[in-house]
């Protein structure tokens, strides 16, 4: 009985891992064209660097997620393209990068 539970738990964890969006991969696929290394090739003062985010009133991952999903200003929303949970994954990843100073590599 314990073996079946363990196998079921492993299956559930694998399903979870396979269905949780990866913020870094989604960023590479959909965002990096304009936001290389946290920059912004269209509006230079609207970067994804921590100081710029804070200056523009974006104070957490949720703020970034909302913009990724719905857009802001000249940036359109990518909610449908990013898929279920994708905007949150991108927002979390971008926030981590901003706090780390957008390390290269």
Can you walk through the features of this model?
The chain has 105 residues and is mostly helical. Strands 1-2 form a two-stranded antiparallel ribbon. Strand 1 and strand 2 form a beta hairpin. The model has no long low-confidence stretch (mean pLDDT 87).
**The CATH C-level class name:** Mainly Alpha
**What's the total helix number?**
6
The CATH topology is Cytochrome Bc1 Complex, Chain D, domain 2
Poorly predicted sequence stretches spanning 5 or more consecutive residues: none
Number of extended strands: 2
Largest sheet: 2 strands, antiparallel
List keywords for this structure.
Cytochrome Bc1 Complex, Chain D, domain 2, mainly alpha, two-stranded antiparallel ribbon, 6 helices, about 100 residues, 2 strands
Topology of helices and strands:
Blueprint: H1 2-19, H2 23-30, H3 50-55, H4 61-70, E1 71-72, E2 75-76, H5 79-82, H6 86-99
Antiparallel strand pairs: 1-2
Please sum up the structure shown.
Helix content is 57%, strand content 4%. With 105 residues, the chain is mainly α.
């Amino acid at each position: 009985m314990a073996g079946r539970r363990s196998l079921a738990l492993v299956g559930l964890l694998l399903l979870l891992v396979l269905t949780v969006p990866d913020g870094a991969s989604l960023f590479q696929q959909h965002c990096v064209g304009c936001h290389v290394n946290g920059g912004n090739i269209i509006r230079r003062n609207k970067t994804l660097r921590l100081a710029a985010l804070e200056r523009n009133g974006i104070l957490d991952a949720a703020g970034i997620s909302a913009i990724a999903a719905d857009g802001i200003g000249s940036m359109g929303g990518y909610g449908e393209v990013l898929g279920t949970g994708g905007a949150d994954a991108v927002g979390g990843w971008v926030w981590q990068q901003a706090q780390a100073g957008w390390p290269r590599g």
